[in-house]
Amino acid sequence: MKRTLLSGIGALGTALLFVSCHKQDCGACFSPPQPLKIALIAAQTGDNLLNAAPYHPDSVQLFYVKDSRQVKVPFKVMPYAGLGPVIHSSDLSWLSLSDAHTFYLYLNQNDTDTLYVKTVAKSSDCCTSHPLESFLVNGEQVPQDRGTDVYTVEK
Length: 155
Fold this sequence. Notes:
6-stranded antiparallel β-sheet, globular, 13 strands, 2 domains, alpha+beta
């Protein structure tokens, strides 16, 4: 009995050692979804539209619809070097991992854009990343500035 118990403990210890060493080999290998950053730019002038009329940062809302109700998505309007105010949301990326892919960006009483956002989970070995697979505004692909990672929406 004692021998069986000791061999069982020894096998368990060896298994735990193997698993813990294997996990250490992976390191901290988790990449959360990146925040989505959106600049609203005047197509004709290149001016940032969140600086003044017709859009004011205090009136902008981001939401999705669930069970016929609007669910607000947290975001911030943050200054971004060389661009001015930019809409910044980590929650939008996280929410798009689930079934919520269609969001609405309310800018003022006359202008609400439809955003389609899809973030996916990709696993390789022991690492998981969450790249943005698709980002559309009103059904159109939006360019991303590779230097700033900001999506520029021209209006």
